[in-house]
Design brief:
The complex is a heterodimer of chains A (about 190) and B (about 575). Chain A is of the alpha+beta class and about 190 residues long. Chain A is built from six helices and nine strands. In chain A, strands 5, 6, 7, 8 and 9 form a five-stranded antiparallel β-sheet that branches. In chain A, a hairpin with a 3-residue loop joins strand 6 and strand 7. The longest helix of chain A is centred in the C-terminal third of the chain and has 13 residues. Chain B is an alpha/beta fold. Chain B has three domains: about 190 residues, Thiamin diphosphate (ThDP)-binding fold, Pyr/PP domains (Rossmann fold, 3-Layer(aba) Sandwich), CATH 3.40.50; about 150 residues, TPP-binding domain (Rossmann fold, 3-Layer(aba) Sandwich), CATH 3.40.50.1220; about 170 residues, Thiamin diphosphate (ThDP)-binding fold, Pyr/PP domains (Rossmann fold). Chain B is built from 24 helices and 20 strands. In chain B, the strands form four sheets. A six-stranded parallel β-sheet of chain B has the order 3-2-4-5-7-6, with helices on both faces. A six-stranded parallel β-sheet of chain B has the order 11-10-9-12-13-14, with helices on both faces. A six-stranded parallel β-sheet of chain B has the order 16-15-17-18-20-19, sandwiched between helices. The longest helix of chain B has 23 residues. The interface between A and B is medium-sized, with 27 and 24 residues.
Chain lengths: ~190, ~575
């Protein structure tokens, strides 16, 4: 069950950029573990900058705590930048995948209706199962799941961690790296 | 492939040649200027020890390798070495238990910003993850408690990893680095090319100082009537002792020092109002809650300093100078943060300060100081009857060394008393486990200190509890003839816990009384001269004998069993509500 936001705790998204070195994820999660803060979702992928990995992490916390966590992550030697955002500062997407029973889906027209209503797409159909994909916010993805589940057609369901991009115009990470390169006069790496 | 030993490579040392990973490690350490290594051999580090054999031969010793008696001792010795010398302490151990035994030292160095590099053997890369003999996931275990940890999987990475390790350990806010060195990488060969890394793009050890914040800090100080400064270890680590004095003197700012910052400025400096914290000096603590501007320099507002967070210096504007931006607002909200190296930021602020005097404010410390002298200090250092007291022993040793010795303490009452009553006239003269509070730290750290500063007198104060926590290092002292002057304050109790039991647990002394062995007998077995002092009249002569003896010495002082360290700000008390007696 998803934990709820409360007056003291809300969902924050951390964007962390690091060098591509083994063990960074461990270092990042250790900062959360130390304060016993649960990571709600986590997505790791290569970023648009070569050799730089991007982590998108969500956690329920308060501003005081999340700012300290963010700074302690950024302090790690191979972490380039870490910043935290509330939902209004970023574009967010998640993806839900639903494996449905094809016979049940054909039998009950309500199922295709609910898929259309949720703007989801059917990406594969075979005699035993069909795959539906839906991108959006947590609530929309969950809502489609609950709708389909009530109709008894779901064989499997999974939801991705969130990915996010910031709404601000500045590209912090590339600017930071450019500035750093200018300062490098000695034996860089 | 050619294997080139030490003898055959001496001639063309600088030219490109093929060497083993173990040999590359020797060369990289030499290139870093390492001279002293604290270590203990074992299976997975044997190729390195084999190369070390050549590098430590009498005819051409590149390194002085100190064989400790337990790997924990190696890590603390490396810390003691680093703290007094300002250089990076080096520790060499084997995999598995050898590596995990150093963890307390690694965690300790992290808490106290001490630059050490721990190099541990590891099973071969092919065996990783198979629960091989003496395998432990060292990088995984150490990541949360060190500044950087890395596994050197290939011989060609040795030069890079060592250079990076030393750069990270000593730059910015210093700290421990752990290198995990699988056996196959020690044996594999590579072309050795020296590296001198002084830039890592993701790591900014010296943040740029914000001019506006410097101006705002100076403005607040110039308008202050009652400024007060907190001097931390950052001043020592940044070699900014002179800059700090100029800053304080120009605006006439009295200051208190943290446990680790005690020797940054001489004890005798008129603006020095003593130690901060739970067992610090009364005036410094009380006036923290009286000042109008509080300037923290290179310190981190530890909970032992602030007492009750909600009432700490609420009346004051707070200026925080630190090289680590993560410390800003971590515990205490600041009004102005000056992030950067205090060796640069202090002079920038000083330039903007008006030369002023705060006579009345300065005098306000005297009254509290007098109260503390009358009620606590005098009875402690000059008692006329009863058993020996800790403070009088420490004071007597400090005076006998002209207040210019290096103080090493263990943890507990010996530590609090040592730091209260020892006096300092030189920088880098306090070696104590401040953040982690590691019992057993003292003896190995003192050994390290004698190698870091062989020209100075190293005085170790240790309790009967902590003495036994790394008692095996008496073997190292014996073998090295390390001139540690060990003053054991023996009260037959785990004294600090006993004090808390008496104060907060209705005197229920749960497992704090301790049956002790014959320490003189132990010392004799190790060939270390020793004596016990029981009577006050014998104290001075015993100290003189200890100091006059070349090499190590154990002076066991039979002190009062139930003596408490006072004054005290109990946990959760306001910083200005110190108890003077219990």
């Amino acid at each position: 069950m998803m934990k709820m936001e409360t007056a003291n705790n809300k969902l924050y998204t951390l964007l962390v950029y690091s060098e591509n070195i083994a063990g960074i994820l461990n270092q990042i999660t250790a900062v959360f573990t130390r304060r016993q803060v649960n990571i709600e979702s986590l997505n790791v992928s290569a970023s648009s900058i070569e050799g730089v990995h991007k982590y998108t992490i969500t956690a329920l916390s308060n501003e005081d705590q999340i700012s300290k966590i963010t700074q302690q992550i950024e302090r790690k030697i191979d972490v380039i930048k870490a910043s935290y955002y509330s939902d209004d500062q970023i574009f967010i997407r998640e993806i839900g995948l639903y494996k449905l029973s094809t016979p049940i889906t054909i039998e009950n027209p309500e199922i295709s209706k609910i898929i259309r209503q949720h703007n989801a797409a059917i990406v594969e159909v075979n005699p035993t199962y069909s795959i539906v994909i839906k991108s959006g916010m947590t609530e929309e993805i969950m809502s489609l799941y609950y709708g389909l589940n009530d109709l008894g057609c779901v064989l499997q369901y999974t939801r991705s961690g969130r990915i996010a991009i910031t709404k601000s115009h500045e590209e912090h990470v590339s600017a930071f790296l450019e500035a750093r390169e200018k300062e490098n006069n000695g034996d860089g790496e | 492939m050619i294997f080139l030993g030490w003898e055959s490579n001496k001639k063309d040392y600088m030219s490109k040649e093929v060497v083993t990973g173990a040999e590359a490690l020797m060369r990289a350490l030499k290139d870093e200027g390492v001279k002293t290594i604290f270590g203990y051999p074992g299976g997975a580090i044997m190729p390195v020890y084999d190369r070390l054999y050549d590098y430590t031969r009498e005819e051409n010793p590149v390194f002085n390798h100190i064989l400790v008696r337990h790997e924990q001792g190696a890590s603390h010795a490396a810390e003691g070495f680093a703290r007094v010398s300002g250089e990076v302490g080096v520790c060499l151990v084997t995999s598995g238990p050898g590596a995990t035994n150093t963890l307390t030292g690694v965690a300790d160095a992290m808490m106290d910003s001490t630059p050490i590099v721990v190099i541990a053997g590891q099973v071969g890369v092919g065996l990783l993850g198979t629960d091989a003999f003496q395998e432990v996931d060292l990088v995984g275990v150490t990541q949360p408690i060190c500044k950087w940890s890395y596994q050197i999987r290939r011989a060609e990475d040795v030069a890079w990893a060592i250079s990076r390790a030393f750069y990270i350990a000593k730059s910015g806010r210093p700290g421990p680095v752990v290198l995990d060195f699988p056996k196959n990488a020690q044996i594999m060969t590579t072309v050795y090319e020296p590296r001198h890394i002084d830039y890592i793009r993701s790591y900014v050890p010296y943040p740029k100082i914000n001019e506006d914040n410097v101006k705002e800090a100076a403005r607040l100080i110039n308008n202050a009537q009652k400024p007060f400064a907190l001097i931390g270890q950052g001043v020592e680590l940044g070699e900014a002792q002179k800059e700090a004095v100029e800053f304080l003197e120009k605006a006439d700012i009295p200051f208190g020092a943290t446990l680790l910052g005690l020797s940054a400025i001489a004890s005798s400096h008129p603006l020095n109002k003593g130690m901060l914290g739970m067992h610090g000096n009364l005036a410094a603590n009380v006036n923290t809650n009286e000042c109008d501007v509080l300037i923290a320099v290179g310190m981190r507002f530890d909970d032992r300093i602030i007492g009750k967070l909600e009432t700490y210096a609420r009346q004051a504007k707070i200026i925080h100078l630190d090289i680590d931006k993560v410390e800003i607002d971590k515990n205490i909200k600041t009004d102005v943060a000056v992030i950067g190296d205090c060796k640069e930021s202090l002079p920038e602020i000083t330039k903007l300060l008006k030369r002023t005097e705060h006579r009345e404010w300065r005098d306000s410390f005297e009254e509290y100081h007098k109260t503390e002298v009358d009620k606590v200090i005098e009875p402690e250092i000059h008692p006329s009857s009863g058993p020996l007291l800790m403070g009088e022993v420490i004071n007597a040793v400090s005076e006998a060394t002209n207040n210019d010795g290096i103080l090493v303490t263990d943890v507990g009452l010996n530590q609090m008393m040592g730091c209260r009553y020892f006096k300092y006239s030189s920088n880098r003269s306090v070696v104590t486990s401040g953040g982690l509070g590691t019992m057993g730290f003292g003896m190995p750290a003192a050994i390290g200190a004698t190698f870091g500063r062989p020209d100075r007198t190293v005085c170790l104060f240790v309790g009967d509890g902590g003495f036994q926590m790394n008692i095996q290092e008496l073997g190292t002292i014996m073998e090295q003839k390390a001139p540690v002057k060990i003053i054991m304050l023996n009260n037959n109790f785990l004294g600090n816990v006993r004090q808390w039991q008496d104060m907060f647990f209705n005197g229920r002394r749960s497992f704090t009384p301790m049956m002790n062995p014959d320490y003189l007998g132990i010392s004799k077995a190790y060939g270390i001269p020793a004596e016990v002092v029981v009577d006050r009249k014998d104290l001075k002569a015993a100290i003189e004998r200890m100091l006059a003896t070349d090499g190590p010495y154990l002076l066991e002082a039979a002190i009062k069993e139930d003596e408490n360290v006072m004054p005290m700000t109990p946990p959760g008390y306001d910083v200005d509500k110190m108890l003077l007696e219990f």
